[in-house]
Fold this sequence. Notes:
By secondary structure, the protein is of the alpha/beta class. The chain is built from nine helices and seven strands, in the order E-H-E-H-E-H-E-H-E-H-E-H-H-H-H-E.
Amino acid sequence: MPMPSLLAVFAHPDDESLSAGGVLARHAAAGARVGVVTATWAADTPRAAELADALRILGAGAPRMLGYADARVPQSAPGGARFCDAPLDEAVGRLVTHIRDFRPEIMVTHDAYGGLTGHPDHVHTHRVAVLAAQAAGLEQLYPDAGAPWQPRALYLATHPHSAVPALRDVVGVHKAVYSVPDERVTATVDVGPWMEQKIAAVLAHRTEVERGAVPGLIAGLSQESRERLFCTEWYIRHSLDPAPAARTELTV
């Protein structure tokens, strides 16, 4: 059975590699069409160029940018609205255009917490992606955004409660982290064979490595610690299919 086409939607350059780099590389290696939409940062910024490098490593095509500003970095899109402040209908419409253009069978985005950190841009990306995934299949919504297309399912990148102790052991997390009960996890994906690609994509975000953000922390970890953190990805399936019998799954 062929691997389904996949469109990932994440808030910032590097989120795609950190949250779903293994699944993106796995689908691309199997010959599936893979794409990534990034909500923040303008296309002519250094971080957009780093994103292009990361996506090349993962086999995920060219960047697709919504062009909004990061909530905490105004210079990420000079003169542009902060993503969290932009009109919701506008942001959903921009994403619908990408969904209808790419026509993915499945989509991936942040969970409702916005992942471990709860960053406001992550949380808002979740909201926009859920609405856009539903709206893309309705022909009377955003009629100028292209022909309707309904993805079968939306998978939410998450962490189960049981993974948090290992995370704290390795990276020494002391701030609040957001995770879900283990039983909420729908797909537990072993991405070990694609871990080196995933790490290389994370490290391609050189600005974040240099400033000591999460990619920088990862750069200093041992191989064993990287394996503990990155060999597994977890997802919650959010169904969009009006015909449940014809399910399209994220392969585990």
